[in-house]
Amino acid sequence: xxxxxxxxxxxxxxxxxxxxxxxxxxxxxxxxxxxxxxxxxxxxxxxxxxxxxxxxxxxxxxxxxxxxxxxxxxxxxxxxxxxxxxxxxxxxxxxxxxxxxxxxxxxxxxxxxxxxxxxxxxxxxxxxxxxxxxxxxxxxxxxxxxxxxxxxxxxxxxxxxxxxxxxxxxxxxxxxxxxxxxxxxxxxxxxxxxxxxxxxxxxxxxxxxxxxxxxxxxxxxxxxxxxxxxxxxxxxxxxxxxxxxxxxxxxxxxxxxxxxxxxxxxxxxxxxxxxxxxxxxxx
Length: 283
Hints:
This is Protein tonB. The chain is mostly beta strands. It has one domain. Helices cover 9% and strands 36% of the residues. It contains 2 helices and 18 strands. Strands 1-17-15-12-13 form a 5-stranded antiparallel beta sheet. The two termini are 25 Å apart.
């Protein structure tokens, strides 16, 4: 398994978290991404599960995950053709949807998994004014913020050879302004334009080093103002209008993804990483 999370500092375009109850018929929700560690048995059962920073999480979120995750079922992970127990890092997206009575329903809507034993990976070379994503000119003054989830192929020279948008989530947008589709399109265009100029340092050791190329996912965060807050901290809710998910036709089977990724990470993709068989709510 070769899916690794590598933290990086991408200070993009600087969100006060606010949204509205309806945008083009869609409901604004609240969300957070929770980190955890787990042990998966050779049969694909969860042997152990521990939340990172449990004390920072709302008690309802912690209880939801501690109740549901131990019952998850995974496709057995094979090493040399033999089912093998593995340790995994998990990032789990929890959503809060408003009810008519004013309360909220909590549900797990996405998760990503990586091998906790693997080290090394891609690192983004420091961004410059020429390579830093620029806030879309046509959205200036609208107060739009969002996250663009990109899937990219990186060559051995560290260049982005292919890239596509998988999903665009809005985290802030005006009550009366451009359409949701237009706002997402402008953010995606700005992200794609910047990423094509990025350069990475590539793996030089471990099982990744000999690959002819690497696939990775990167969330690109856009904030409307230079002095915008950096976003909610771990365990805090964020306004969230999820966009439709698309999959580029060049993504291999088993590499389909989720928006359950921390905003400041590069996530290398490995089809041999743990694959969840349990159906999650809302997806």
